[in-house]
Amino acid sequence: MSISPIMSAISPMVMSYAPSDTSKVEDTEHKQIMQSLQAIGVTPSGNKETDKTLLNTIEAQLAQTLNFYGVAATGVAETDHILLRMVMNAVERQQEASDDSSSQYIPFEDVMNAINITPTGDIEEDYDDTITELDYRISTAADEEEEAYYESLKTEVEEQYTDYMYSQSRNDMFIGSGQISSVNRFMMI
């Protein structure tokens, strides 16, 4: 069986075309990976597998951090990095604003006003004073209806205080994780 002149001319082209196309795809993929790493401030190693693993790790960390703060990750490292910076800036501005104010936000201030307690601006002190006063009013209530009223106020104060402290701890933890993330980024470089 002989090979026709047309087949002998096409066969080398097909053979040479496939490997060069595959290498171009691999080079293009590695270039994209390196560009993504550089866009977020990380110097690529030059090794495709190492860079790909590094980019995947960074994307996962970005997604986890954004998810922690309630922001949906896009899956694109550059975009998620920008989102994280925006969130961190917002948290820093919020932190600065709360540091600048002389008193803290008291989520149960309306209950304090209802039982004639003047807020001091220190949430722990105001919480203790409010709970103490409500406990006293519960113990000295004239009837079950009055006791139930003060019990409901106490439950409301406890829930608002707990929710507020939880949100503050999440903010503090996010700020801390942002600082750790910045240190990690510089350690990887």
Relevant terms:
189 residues, mainly alpha, 6 helices
Can you offer a commentary on this structure?
There is one protein chain. The protein has six helices and no strands. It is mainly α. Among the domains are: 38-101; 109-168, no CATH class. It is rod-shaped and about 80 Å long.
Q: What secondary-structure arrangement, pairings included, does this model have?
A:
Blueprint: H1 5-39, H2 48-68, H3 77-100, H4 109-114, H5 123-139, H6 144-188
The level of helicity is over 70%
Cα-atom radius of gyration: 31 Å
Give the number of DSSP strands: 0
Spans of at least 5 consecutive residues whose pLDDT stays below 50 are 1-22
**SSE arrangement, N to C:** HHHHHH
Cα shape: rod-shaped
Largest sheet: none
Task: Characterize this entry briefly.
The protein is mostly helical and 189 residues long. Among the domains are: 38-101; 109-168, no CATH class.
